[in-house]
Amino acid sequence: MKTRFFCPHCRSVLNPGTRIILAVRLGEMRGLILLSPQPGNYHYVCDESFRSRMRIGDEVEFSCPICRADLASSVSEKLVEIVIKTPDQKTKIARFSRVCGEHATFVCNGQKVEDYGEHKSLFANLDFTDFDWKW
Fold first, then answer.
1. In 12-122, at which residue ranges do the beta strands (DSSP E only) sit?
2. Taking the mean position of all CA atoms in its chain, how far away is CA 57?
């Protein structure tokens, strides 16, 4: 069994294949984005018309492609939050920056936080151990 990613609202699987699929919005433009399931890998795939309008520093809104719920994190409005289920059925929370060009990812199991990306220090003052998911 592979690591699976879920919407924290409707619990839909967000990675039915090899990539995580999320809905995105930048101003009036909407689209889909495919993200790597590997924390710290910031390569993504999206429509070229969407990509060409993104600028460093833009804040992209992320939502579930199934229920359309906003995936903004409760820890910081500049982070997105999704649920991870590992192959051994452990639950974690992945939080990552929604700011274009800002590479910061945090994966927490409720006790330990794994952090990734050259901009992780921008979020050093946040408590990522906040973890109350009952799955």
1. 20-26, 29-35, 44-46, 61-63, 79-85, 91-97, 105-108, 113-116
2. 17
Q: Which two tokens stand for residue 58?
A: 């833009």
Express each pLDDT in 76-97 by its tens digit.
Answer: 999 999 999 999 989 999 999 9
Residue with tokens 């982070």: 79
Q: Would residue 131 count as lying in a domain? A: no
Q: Among candidates 115, 108, 117, which has minimal Cα distance to 8?
A: 108
Residue 93 lies in a domain: yes
14 assigned to some structural domain: yes
Query: What is the share, in percent, of the chain residues with pLDDT greater than 90?
Result: 79
Tell me the pTM: 0.92
**Virtual torsion, Cα 73, 122, 42, 111, nearest 10 deg:** -60
Q: Give a yes or no: residue 133 inside a domain.
A: no
Q: What is the distance between the alpha carbons of residues 59 and 124, in angstroms, rounded to a whole number?
A: 19
